[in-house]
Amino acid sequence: MNRTLLALGLALGAAAVPAAAGVDVDFGATVRLDDHTDLFFSISSRYFDRDRDVIVDWGRRFPDPDDLSVFFFVVERSGRSPDFVFALRKRGLSWWEVGRRCGLPVDVWFVPVAVDPGPPYGRAYGHWKKWKRNPRTVVVLRDADVRNLVAVRMVHEYYGVPVQTAMKWRAEGRDVRALMASEYTRRHGHKGRPGDHRGPEHDGKKDRDKDRSRHGHGRGRGEH
Question: Considering 30, 132, 158, 179, which has the largest number of Cβ atoms within 10 A of its Cβ?
């Protein structure tokens, strides 16, 4: 087969992985609502369709939940083995370069939005827009951009909330673990109330201030 056609087929295959929209379930008593890490592992296990023990094991090597999510995103969308992806990252490559070497197309990182998003997403979506006009355009994203994109996609697809809503929650400065766990608690915990459609940005000033002190007020994650 022509190498160009083969490469194109692989790229389209990676981009065609179906979205796991609205896969949220109640785990019942198997998770502790007050342990965000434990809850996040269970959510990630379902979202990435991996045994929970596998998620926990790799979580030891990626203590930052944002990096853990990007890691499994690359593994899932590329079809590469976790060991292969980990070896690339361990060499000091950016997440964007890791994805590129695993054959991920530019489109796979982005969720279409109705309007141009503002900070901290505008730079990444600006590159995507240029690439769509001219696929020969070289796109290079920072680790901060990649972490934001994967976090937004995970919140959007897992809970089925609008992309703009997921972007707003992420822009508050929380990591993906806090976002996923707090929304799960709102929906399934004893504090959740029918008709209460508030998102993770309403979970409490103390928790927000803690995250903002780590990541900066009103911004996404910092650069790698």
Answer: 179
